[in-house]
Amino acid sequence: MSKAILIEMLKEKKLKITPQRIAILEELEKNGHSTVDDIFNGIKLRVPSVSLATVYKNILALQSAEILKSVKTPTHKQKYEINIKPHIHLFCKVCENLQDFEIDTNEFKKYCKEKSGYYCIDEASILLTGICKKCSKQQSKAI
Ligand SMILES: [Zn+2]
Ligand SMILES: [Zn+2]
Fold first, then answer.
1. In the chain, what is the straight-line distance between the N-terminal and C-terminal CA atoms, in Å?
2. 47-57: pLDDT as tens digits
3. Tens-digit pLDDT profile for residues 91-123
4. Strand partners, 68
5. 97: CA distance to ligand 1 center in Å?
6. Which range marks the domain in which residue 143 is found?
7. How many domains does the chain have?
8. Around ion ligand 1, which residues have CB less than 5 A away?
9. Same domain membership, residue 70 and residue 140
10. Higher pLDDT, 47 or 139
11. CATH code, domain with 52
12. Domain holding 131: CATH number?
């Protein structure tokens, strides 16, 4: 994504375009899932005057505009990512790696809506835990 697209995302949600917000989006685009601390440390290298409070405040603003999504993992602090395509998360219990997995959750949501009688279901935040391919190879070697 170019800077112009990131600016477009802010414009579309009628958010003020500030260097801090662009820097947050650039960090997340570069590194994927990141904690507030990760983002702050990345931005501090470029903008030494920035404060953790400012970064946090901006992350929350971007999250309520649905430009960012938060991801909770079993062991890490809350992470954030740019909300682009619907996807679920795979979390390896051994190496604690968090991976995106693109899947169409519409059928699942439809099923849950029908079974639960919910008026509407809009979001599916699904995290599956297990052992990744890399770690499974190491485990079978160890045996
Ligand atoms: Zn693993
Ligand atoms: Zn993700």
1. 44
2. 889 999 999 99
3. 999 999 999 999 988 999 999 999 999 999 988
4. 82
5. 6
6. 86-143
7. 2
8. 92, 94-95, 132, 135
9. no
10. 47
11. 1.10.10.10
12. 3.30.1490.190
